[in-house]
Amino acid sequence: MAALGWLTPRRRSATARSVLAGEASAEAARKSSQELEDLAYEAAPDVSVEEPEFPVLGDDKAAAFFDLDNTVMQGAALFHFGRGLYKRRFFETRDLARFAWQQAWFRLAGVEDPEHMQDARDSALSIVKGHRVSELMSIGEEIYDEYMAERIWPGTRALAQAHLDAGQKVWLVTAAPVEIATVIARRLGLTGALGTVAESVDGVYTGKLVGEPLHGPAKAEAVRALAAAEGLDLSRCAAYSDSHNDIPMLSLVGHPYAINPDTKLRKHARTFDWRLRDYRTARKAAKVGIPAAAGVGAVAGGTAAAIALHRRRR
User: Fold this and answer.
1) What is the DSSP string of 253-294?
2) pTM
């Protein structure tokens, strides 16, 4: 589809299933955030007499929404989760080979291939069918430590921390299962997560989705629903993503960021003067209207995260 089809969040109408997926994800995120709230963030430190331009300290009508794959974390969460399930004998070697190929494509191309993503989701649903939600949540904690923790981008983590330090809520928004996204959000100290909601009955997965995967327009619907429920002003909120598929979500907020952007998103961001950050290379990141959050707080947070990752790898 031509990029012009994504210029505004409503140029491509959301389907009824997108709206259902978005509303279901928002409801699941609000429930999980009640459990995460105590761990979400510490009180903002006294780092400067001057209030930063952005994010605005104490603005309770603002929040930040972060895509997960290739924005917060290198690679795709669903594929790393598949590796962990294989290790625990949830499926066979041929399925692991498919996961490995999909992950290799994702890392090399840097974009989401719809067929690969759909295949991965179908595989995951068939694998977890009949298992308890609590079991997958527990396994998700282990898989995070095994495969995901060392793949968090320190720069993006610092941006999220800047919002937390300003007293704002920070949400992951991802096509990954909401249970896995919630584990990642909790480990990073974020407020909660919007993710794809798999149907469960009495705590057991049925192998079906509620609505559709939280992807593209569905992400925008989830953010819209959550903002309405939380009383947020989207014009004061920020959103971060690497993919042109998330232009509907990015277009909803007053402060859109292109993080490690694919070619289409980079072009769109430059056209509309969106902020750009690229943490994939050692070269200086492209800058368009970088706000004050990139100053003392973000740099300090990025340094701390980098040190923590270095120690973890030793």
Assistant:
1) SSEEEEES--HHHHHHHHHTT-EEE--SSSSPPP-SS--GGG
2) 0.69
